[in-house]
């Protein structure tokens, strides 16, 4: 139930109930009162607006009569889904097209969205148990704002994990926790802002990062890719002193930057007195070759900001990410009073995650999810190769939770997406990852597989093959 705050004019020629009815009707038609929203009770609204119950009752009766709301016994008044009602009335009289068919034909059954994860294997019972344990440990602590950079216990766990898994060298004091990579990138952009003329980024690259930099007034200089990642020579030529990069799994093309090129990039930072922003967003999921240490762990000059997230291994809805600041930027963080920013991740969630890591559940979960996602990736790739053969080229299959697919059927990006939707499958564009979308490859789409079952992946690819190659 919601509150309705309305300015009613007692001097108007329109009665108060008419004014109230017109207001609610307008809110419904504009979408501000969504379908299935419960309206306040007659008693509650009359008390809130200081008007008689009869006035509210008359307005509600008019809304019911005109079909904007419906009364549910012992429950209340609810806004009707006008869009669904329109479909129903349009098609209910047709014997050849029942009203459900329109929704069925337009429904997306297989959504290959990158960023979706496998919720089926998330240890909800363990998380619930640890969350309850956190509530019982120190209730006074959990109702306070907490440490602005994150709770020390969780920062200790993250530091230990990163050192063992990614070779990151840091103390807990260098780690800052925040609600997502983009929030943390906003802090980095603020720290660097006045000191730089532009920021270099991979082209194509993560559009979420590009937007954060642009919103903070930082011009973005796109740097083209080689087969093994960022073109270092073009980076030198750009004269930028800051570079944002995804070396462990380039987004979106998926290549893994080899050790030799990582050394070249670190040399660039030393030569240019520059800063590397290393986004290690899904480094846990590498399927080919030996793991390569993070740039931060190889950086003897301490010029690398390291970013990571729990969104891919756990759940995006947890909104928990972290960054490791080099000493120079950590001093700027203190100097410019960034500790006045309140922590954006709840203490309860931080404490639960700390217990999840300290009790060994985190690493066990990663090991399990590597197998789960590896199987899904193999299912996706093998099905594409079996059905499409040389009619499609798979790009970026060595790591991560998505691939790019270059389709050789003459369709452009938009046509591929729209044709797929006609058979209930959603795939995604690649052009937004380019600074200038018109320069993107014409016939390429992004396919994520984390949120689908193996069976749905197979069925979804069969539907794509039918849509793209059988003159659907």
Automatic annotation (TrEMBL):
GO terms for molecular function: transaminase activity. Keywords: Aminotransferase, DNA-binding, Pyridoxal phosphate, Transcription, Transcription regulation, Transferase. Pfam families: Aminotran_1_2, GntR. InterPro entries: Aminotransferase_I/II_large (IPR004839), HTH_trans_reg/aminotransferase (IPR051446), PyrdxlP-dep_Trfase (IPR015424), PyrdxlP-dep_Trfase_major (IPR015421), Tscrpt_reg_HTH_GntR (IPR000524), WH-like_DNA-bd_sf (IPR036388), WH_DNA-bd_sf (IPR036390). The keyword DNA-binding applies. Residues 14-82 form the HTH gntR-type domain. Its cofactor is pyridoxal 5'-phosphate. This is PLP-dependent aminotransferase family protein. In the C-terminal section; belongs to the class-I pyridoxal-phosphate-dependent aminotransferase family.
């Amino acid at each position: 139930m919601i509150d309705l705050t309305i300015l009613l004019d007692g001097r108007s020629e329109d009665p108060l109930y008419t004014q109230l009815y017109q207001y609610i009707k307008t809110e419904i038609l504009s979408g501000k009162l969504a379908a299935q929203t419960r309206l306040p009770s007659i008693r509650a609204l009359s008390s809130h607006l200081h008007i008689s119950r009869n006035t509210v009752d008359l307005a509600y009766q008019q809304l019911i009569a005109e079909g904007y709301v419906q009364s549910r016994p012992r429950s209340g008044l609810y806004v009707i889904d006008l869009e669904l009602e329109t479909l129903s009335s349009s098609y209910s009289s047709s014997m050849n097209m029942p009203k459900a068919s329109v929704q069925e034909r337009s429904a997306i059954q297989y959504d290959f969205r990158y960023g979706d994860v496998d919720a089926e294997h998330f240890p909800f019972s363990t998380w619930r148990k640890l969350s309850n344990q956190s509530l019982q440990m120190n209730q006074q602590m959990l109702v306070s704002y907490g440490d602005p950079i994150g709770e020390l216990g969780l920062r200790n766990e993250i530091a230990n994990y990163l050192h063992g898994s990614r070779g990151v060298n840091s103390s807990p004091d260098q780690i800052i926790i925040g609600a997502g990579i983009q929030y943390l990138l906003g802090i980095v952009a603020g720290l660097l802002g006045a000191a730089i003329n532009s920021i270099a980024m991979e082209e194509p690259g993560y559009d979420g990062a590009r937007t954060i930099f642009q919103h903070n007034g930082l011009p973005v200089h796109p740097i083209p890719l080689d087969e093994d990642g960022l073109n270092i020579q073009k980076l030198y030529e750009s004269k930028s002193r800051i570079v944002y990069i995804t070396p462990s799994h380039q987004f979106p093309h998926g290549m893994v930057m080899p050790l030799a090129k990582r050394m070249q990039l670190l040399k660039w930072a030393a030569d240019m007195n520059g800063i590397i922003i290393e986004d290690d967003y899904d480094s846990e999921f590498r399927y080919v070759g030996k793991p390569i240490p993070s740039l931060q762990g190889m950086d003897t000059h301490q010029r690398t900001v390291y970013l990571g997230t729990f969104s891919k291994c756990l759940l995006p809805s947890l909104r928990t990410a972290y960054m490791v600041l080099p000493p120079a930027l950590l001093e700027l963080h203190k100097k410019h009073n960034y500790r006045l920013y309140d922590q954006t991740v709840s203490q309860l969630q931080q404490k639960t995650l700390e217990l999840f890591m300290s009790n060994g559940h985190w690493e066990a979960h990663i090991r399990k999810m590597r197998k789960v996602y590896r199987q899904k990736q193999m299912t996706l790739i093998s099905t594409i190769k079996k059905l499409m053969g040389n009619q499609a080229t798979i790009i970026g299959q060595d790591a991560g939770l998505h691939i790019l697919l270059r389709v050789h059927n003459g369709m452009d990006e938009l046509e591929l997406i729209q044709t797929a939707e006609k058979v209930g499958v959603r795939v995604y564009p690649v052009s937004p990852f380019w600074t200038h979308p018109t320069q993107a490859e014409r016939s390429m789409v992004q396919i994520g597989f984390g949120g689908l079952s193996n069976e749905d992946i197979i069925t979804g690819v069969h539907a794509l093959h039918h849509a793209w190659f059988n003159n659907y």
